[in-house]
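Give me the fold.
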Amino acid sequence: VEESKEEIIDGETLKEEKDSTNTSKAENTTSTSKKAETKKEENSTNVVTTKPVQEEKKKELTFKAPVKGEILREYAVENLVYSETLKEWITHNGIDIKADKTTVVTAAAPGKIYAIKNDPRYGLTVIIEHDDGFKTVYSNLLTAEFVVEGENVEEGQTIGTVGSSGAFEISDDYHLHFEMLKDDAYVNPTTYINFD
């Protein structure tokens, strides 16, 4: 009987020790979570100040004439112009700049070659994509072997030479057919470029 009492006593002692161990663990856990809460509070009270990152000021996009010459045919979206080749009145989404055959055509502004294609109406064409939603289109070219699609170009860089590859303007003197778009809508190039 005494042994069983001892066992019981020992059992109670063990139980009490276990309870005190569990209590100690609970206190440690509580203490740890209080520390974590304290850290969280400290972090939430710490004021982190950040200075706004100053963006580099974008250089204002300016355009230069891709060739020098007289404007043979004006931009005419709302008015009609007469086409000698087609023998009819048409709209004209760009301007035609008179230039001798093989005259060097240069990029009007820095950008990326968006496309080089053979347009069924306007012949060999190079399209450059610029910042701020602008595109410039150079058509009626003889050659465009100086650039490739995806290439970055600088203002004044050679992109082709004047020819007479445009079927819609074959009866006209040698010229560059030049168009500008802003957000995929045609705009008058003379609004952005001085051709004098």
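The first strand starts at residue 71 and ends at 73.
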